[in-house]
Amino acid sequence: AMDEAGIRDDLFRRFAEACAAAGDPAALAAAANDLEAQVAGAGVPDGLRAEVLEAYHRLGPAACVAVRSSATAEDTAGLSFAGMHETFTNVVGDQDVIDQIVACWRSLYGQRVISYRAARGLTEEPSIAVVIQEQVAADRAGVLFTADPSTGERDRVVVEGAFGLGEV
């Protein structure tokens, strides 16, 4: 999408500048706001928009979906971007789906994300995918870890749960 808008190279250059300014809160905030605005201005290319909405319509009229971010290097042995990139639940309607995709893309350039990347020396071009999933109206939700996330022990299974959609 950023290639099609003709801003990909400029985004990467400005991201590198933002990382260099990560120690200056005011400069970081200004750079992050500018990057997010640039992504928002690019929007979703017509071809991609049509493909996304075609798939969304196959879910049925007024389907309720979750629009979830999935960034590269999001969760590895030494990194965890958990909760830094946006995810949206209870998304209904064509425009809402498209708007939340762009919001997920924008979250790649949030202040906290830029600061985290800079602190860990992650200087490669950031990228993000967006997953759209039909939403289940859940009373309870959770996650199962096949290794203890605190210790890395593989002889323990950890289950975390919460009431509602698991947004907490």
Sequence stretches where pLDDT stays below 50 over 5 or more residues:
none
Described by its quaternary structure, the protein is single chain
The rounded Rg comes to 18 Å
| Distance separating the two termini | 31 Å
Care to count the β-strands? 5
Q: Major sheet: size, sense and barrel closure?
A: 3 strands, antiparallel
Q: What's the number of helices?
A: 6
Structural class designation: alpha+beta
What is the general shape? Answer: flat
Strand order of the largest sheet: 2-1-3
Helix content: 40-55%
Could you state the order of secondary-structure elements as H and E? HHHHEEHHEEE
Strand % is 15-25%
Q: Mean pLDDT, rounded to whole units?
A: 89
3D structure, described in words:
- With 168 residues, the chain is α+β, with helices and mostly antiparallel strands.
- The chain is flat, with a radius of gyration of 18 Å.
